[in-house]
Amino acid sequence: MNIPSRVDLPFFAYGIFRPGQLGFLRIREFVASASPSTVGGELRIRDGLPIADQSGRGQVKGSRLVFTPDRGRAAYDRIAEIEPDSQYLWGTTVSGGVECNLLWGRSPKKGSVPLEEPDWDGKTDPLFTAALDVAEETLAANGAFEWDLKPMFRLQMAYLLLWSAIERYTSLRYHLGERAFDKIRQVALEPAFAEAMGQITVSDERSVQRADRPTDRVTFDPRNPSCCIEYYYQLRSNIVHRGKGVVRDHDRIREALAELLPAFRQTLKAAFAGASLDA
Q1: C-alpha–C-alpha distance, residues 88 and 60, integer Å
Q2: What global pTM score does this model have?
Q3: Nearest to 177 by CA among 90, 54, 279, 81
Q4: Which residues of 159-174 are buried (b: 16+ CB within 10 A; e: fewer)?
Q5: Domains of the chain with bracketed CATH
Q6: Is 59 left (phi over 0), alpha (psi -120 to 50) or beta?
Q7: What are phi and psi of 59, to 5 degrees?
Q8: pLDDT digits (tens, 9 = 90+) for 7-42
């Protein structure tokens, strides 16, 4: 996505780039001030993302972000790097009597619904709340292996649900594009995730083969967060492409779910806590 022509203008943020949201982490270092404000329009939801419809007759709540002098271009580069052009296009508006850039929704009424709440908050996303609770409840209820494989399949479903939440997080945090594993690798660089991995004790070597290339093996190493996230992701990929397993698969998924679920909760909490101007 291109950047706006006027990089000296403030940015009106109503979605993922608003203070307190995951996208704000990408631009926080360039922000000199943030002021709550509103602009004319309607806030809608499409594919889980907030989009502003400039033809709406209501008000869109957000924040007017003023960038540090000479850092506007760097800030807008960061915004554009998240690849929002499939959902958004650049425009201008007036916020508190000040002209601002903002990302209007592209064809905003297609495939969208009006937002029912006063404004959008990523912290309340169902994948970050109810979905994680469901995964935790499923883990607690399906610890023992049974030969009908039902507990194992329930754990696999919970594990895939957890990964849906993780992939949602990485999209909002890093970019909206399709390069899934490129985004997931970034999680290994987050201090909260590394700290969670460092608390895991491994008595025996753990490794998993790729379902599509059985000679390739990924080994779990809690001292190396990159190896950990690759191991967990490979388990996820094997479930999708293979499905059925045996006793060892049950134990492996139960173990991974028990480790990755609290690690992701910790990572998610730390990210939202850090997404403020004063953090």
Answers
A1: 15
A2: 0.93
A3: 81
A4: bebbbebbbbbbbbbb
A5: 11-114 (3.10.490.10), 125-274 (no CATH)
A6: beta
A7: -130, 140
A8: 999 999 999 999 999 999 999 999 999 999 999 999
